[in-house]
Amino acid sequence: MLHYYNHSLKTLNTFGIDVLARRYFECTNIYEIEKAVASLKPEDYPCLILGGGSNILFTANFPGTVIHPLIKGIEIVSETGNRVTIRAEGLS
Prior knowledge:
Distance between the termini: 15 Å
Number of helices: 1
Strand content: 35-45%
Mean pLDDT: 92
């Protein structure tokens, strides 16, 4: 898990707006996300989960915490007859 203060979000939004997140986490699994959230204090809010950055427009620095999950993967959980259950993790 990467953790930064005053981290640029320029490469993380499709508009390329160069704004800073007061606190930023880059997480590669669900346990890192849980750890990041558990570490938050009242002054770390608001908290934003940032995916690919294509549906957000930053107009100013973000005053709270940005959690950027970089979780990838898909797995077959079960197969029965003509039914397949899968688990897909987020992709950003």
